[in-house]
Amino acid sequence: MEYVGLTRKELAEKAGIKKRALDAYLEAQQSIPPADKAIKIAAALGVSVEYLVIGKEYNQAVYVSRYLQFKDILDDLAILPAGVLGPIKAVIKTFAENERKKRNQPTDMA
């Protein structure tokens, strides 16, 4: 709203909703706009509803390409019983946490 240079009153008018409703949506996250109102607000701001809600765009192509390489593993995991999945998840989580720590550590040039 600020980036586009609109006041609450202007945004409400542009979106065709009551300012009081917009205030409720913006203040303390006490009220979530219905889909039709969210679409109007997003359109008035020139953003997607997704951006309005989560602050970033969802790029399905990036998501799919990122996880497609693991499809065979995911298919295999899907057929395993729940009792087996717990330990597998724990092992994966441990390795991933160790890798994150390695990547976040500065390189020692001494």
Notable characteristics:
110 residues, mainly alpha, 434 Repressor (Amino-terminal Domain), 7 helices, 0% strand
Give your account of this protein's structure.
Helix 1 packs across helix 2 and helix 1 crosses helix 3. With 110 residues, the protein is mainly alpha-helical. The chain has 2 domains: 51 residues, 434 Repressor (Amino-terminal Domain) (Orthogonal Bundle), CATH 1.10.260.40; 44 residues. It has 7 helices and no strands.
Fold topology:
Blueprint: H1 8-15, H2 19-26, H3 35-45, H4 49-54, H5 60-68, H6 71-78, H7 82-104
Helix pairs in contact: 1-2, 1-3
CATH architecture of the largest domain: Orthogonal Bundle
The CATH topology label of the largest domain is 434 Repressor (Amino-terminal Domain)
Distance between the termini: 49 Å
Computed CA radius of gyration, to the nearest angstrom: 22 Å
- How helical, in percent, are the residues? 55-70%
What's the β-strand tally?
A: 0
**How many helices does DSSP assign?**
7
Question: Which sequence of SSEs, written as H and E, runs from N to C?
Answer: HHHHHHH
What portion of residues belong to β-strands?
A: under 5%
> Which secondary-structure class do the elements indicate?
mainly alpha
**Low-confidence runs of at least 5 consecutive residues:** none
CATH class of the largest domain: Mainly Alpha
Biggest sheet architecture = none
